[in-house]
């Protein structure tokens, strides 16, 4: 995305599991939809017009992504859906299909198989250092949003806003309440295992919320230099690039002029994912442009206010929403003030993260496409996909109940519709 100004371009990535159509057991068969070249060699990525497909670290996950930076969300969910259907058609030949949601509810991550083709040396290095046979590596599917910026000033404004958005993301996007056949106690178990998957080298993930870095030099000093120093004893062959090693909830890609937001759990259908990333982008734009600032601050004062939020305090808030999603109570006046919800503008009753999202949506909804408005309004009324799944399955579902309910998710993906909502 190099040289694109702030808000000019974006990119979206979506990851899905490949499972047996009957048992829902994971199948390491991303090779099937990716196919082979004219010489019979396995492909690791392929493009269909504006949508690309590629492998991930594990062979049972397939990624769909914008092949080129996009300037509009119009019709994007439909394009992703078209390629998802194409992939499912190929997988049907081996009695397999794509399964949405951020974590498989009963898979044993020890059964995972690394992608054995391109980049195997890199994947083996990760496996050697961190042991990728855990949920934090083998069982997490997400939706990433990449946003363009040009230069330090735009980076600083965007990064400051993203740091404040990250703790709210599980409250709109959580879809992973179950692991190992039982309720985890977290509405967003993916983020909980994600933040521990590299504990051996804690500098790589940090506190998930990135540090208060608002320029390339600050980011390099606070994050990249520490990551490179910490990994050096383990990566003696220098295979791991610091841009990819950095595993915070949003990572700066100065090599391509973008920040990648990584905390969104994959939803049940592409229109739902696009609705969430549209809302993310509209919210960030509103923050940066001072839409929530009210009359008490100038834009300059408000932007300075945004930069002063402590990383540890934001990480603690993320922990709350990781556990309770939209039901997490937010009792931090300064954080509420970011969105114009300080004590003068909010009721005396406790404010939940879900309340904040409803308020945000009321401010920015006209900046979303009509399709995303329709989906988002239903999602806000229903609650997160994780809460809908928990409502249907409870604390200790049987294996048969998991299979029945998650087949409904697969059907939602196959028809691009929401789960738990009567049409």
From TrEMBL:
Keywords: Ligase. One of its GO terms (biological process) is modified amino acid biosynthetic process. It comes from the Bacteria. GO terms for molecular function: glutamate-cysteine ligase activity. InterPro entries: GCL_type2/YbdK_subfam (IPR050141), GCS2 (IPR006336), Gln_synth/guanido_kin_cat_dom (IPR014746). It holds the Pfam family GCS2. This is Glutamate-cysteine ligase family 2(GCS2).
């Amino acid at each position: 995305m190099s040289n694109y100004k702030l808000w000019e371009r974006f990119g979206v990535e979506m990851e899905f599991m490949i499972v047996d159509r009957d048992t829902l057991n994971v199948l390491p068969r991303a090779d099937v939809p990716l196919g082979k070249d004219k010489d019979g060699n396995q492909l690791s990525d392929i493009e269909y017009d504006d949508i690309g497909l590629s492998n991930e670290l594990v062979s049972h996950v397939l990624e769909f992504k914008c092949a080129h930076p996009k300037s509009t969300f119009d019709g994007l969910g439909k394009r992703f859906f078209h390629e998802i259907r194409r992939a499912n058609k190929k997988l049907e030949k081996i009695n397999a299909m794509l399964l949405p949601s951020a974590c498989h509810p009963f898979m044993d991550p020890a059964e995972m198989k690394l992608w054995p083709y391109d980049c195997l040396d890199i994947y083996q290095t990760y496996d050697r250092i961190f042991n990728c046979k855990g949920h934090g590596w083998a069982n997490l599917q997400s939706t990433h949003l990449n946003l363009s910026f040009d230069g330090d000033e735009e980076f600083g404004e965007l990064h400051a806003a993203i740091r404040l958005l990250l703790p709210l993301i599980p409250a709109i996007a959580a879809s992973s309440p179950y692991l190992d056949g039982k309720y985890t106690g977290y509405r967003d178990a993916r983020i909980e295992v994600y933040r521990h998957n590299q504990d051996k080298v804690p500098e790589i993930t940090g506190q998930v919320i990135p540090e208060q870095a608002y320029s390339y030099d600050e980011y390099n000093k606070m994050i990249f230099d520490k990551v490179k120093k910490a990994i050096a004893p383990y990566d003696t062959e220098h295979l791991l690039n610091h841009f990819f090693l950095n595993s915070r909830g949003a990572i700066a890609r100065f090599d391509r002029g973008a920040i990648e937001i990584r905390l969104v759990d994959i939803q049940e259908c592409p229109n739902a994912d696009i609705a969430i990333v549209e809302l993310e982008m509209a919210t960030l734009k509103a923050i940066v442009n001072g839409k929530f600032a009210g009359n008490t601050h100038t834009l300059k004062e408000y932007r300075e206010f945004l930069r002063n939020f402590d990383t540890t305090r934001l990480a603690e808030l993320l922990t709350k929403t990781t556990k309770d999603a939209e039901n997490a109570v937010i009792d931090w006046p300064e954080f509420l003030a970011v969105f114009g919800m300080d004590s003068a503008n909010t009721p005396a009753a406790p404010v939940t993260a879900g309340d904040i999202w409803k308020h945000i949506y009321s401010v920015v909804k006209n900046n979303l496409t009509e399709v995303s408005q329709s989906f988002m309004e239903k999602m806000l009324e229903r609650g997160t996909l994780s809460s809908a799944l928990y409502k249907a399955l409870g604390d200790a579902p049987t294996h048969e109940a998991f299979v029945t309910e998650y087949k409904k998710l697969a059907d939602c993906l196959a028809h691009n519709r929401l789960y738990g909502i009567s049409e």
